[in-house]
Amino acid sequence: MSIKVQGLSKTYAKQTAVNNISFTANSGRIVGFLGPNGAGKSTTMKMLTGYLQPSAGSVELCGLDVQAQPVAIKKLMGYLPEHTPLYTDMYVQEFLSFVASTYGLQNADEKVKQTIQKVGLQAEQHKKIAMLSKGYKQRVGLAQAIIHDPQVLILDEPTSGLDPNQLTDIRTLIKTLGKDKTVILSTHIMQEVEALCDDVIILHQGKIVANQSLDSLKNEQGDFSLEQIFRKLTASTTN
Question: Which CDD domains match (predicted)?
């Protein structure tokens, strides 16, 4: 397995954002990571990537402890956060060359060229990032996440801001990447889960309420759409 999460929790003062969750994710599978706003999705993703220290529990990526081996983890992982931090005064090609240099990639120029082509930035590569539309900025964010060919991809709302044509292209790319990588994908778009995901994890109030293959979840819940299943499992309750 590429990702192993055991007893993971995150508490802020008296508020528990993530409450003792455990799951695994395997190579060649795309996992839809779902939940209503405030369920703990982004917090969990930040802990998976090592950008946030858990209050309890552990995360392993490709057999390495995320907290104990942060530098090695960064080489194995690609991360697209919900709000992609980009150097907007840099040009697209310049920014990706910078990212490639931080990973110490060999044949960096060729890697940049290939990645620009993969995410469809050929026409925008000589523009400043600040001048790009939201959709193209999102493509730059995806490009920085995959340029070093990571084994694990963690994508928080990767299709946010894309128009229908861009959406199709990026979904196709994610599906292709998922054939030989472990991909965890957060989204609010149920059609996207249906189109892309093999497995589904649903969070509600910091706890896992579903963790299984998409097909088995739908079979188990009977004649309901994924949206209906999601609403059923995340119906508001008080702890």
Answer: ABC_DR_subfamily_A (cd03230)
Find out whether 15 and 51 touch, Cβ atoms under 8 Å. no
Of 192, 236, 234, which Cα lies nearest the Cα of 35?
Answer: 234
The overall average pLDDT reported for the chain is 92
**Strand 182-186 relative to strand 30-34, pairing:** parallel
Mean pLDDT of the region 160-188? 88
Q: Cβ distance 234 to 35 under 8 Å?
A: yes
The burial class, CB within 10 Å (0-12 / 13-18 / 19+), for 64 is middle
The domain 3-84+151-233 is placed in CATH, from the list 1.25.40.10, 3.40.50.300, 3.40.190.10, 3.40.50.720, at 3.40.50.300
Q: What is the pLDDT of residues 33-43, one digit of tens each?
A: 999 998 999 99
What is the pTM (predicted TM-score) of this model? 0.90
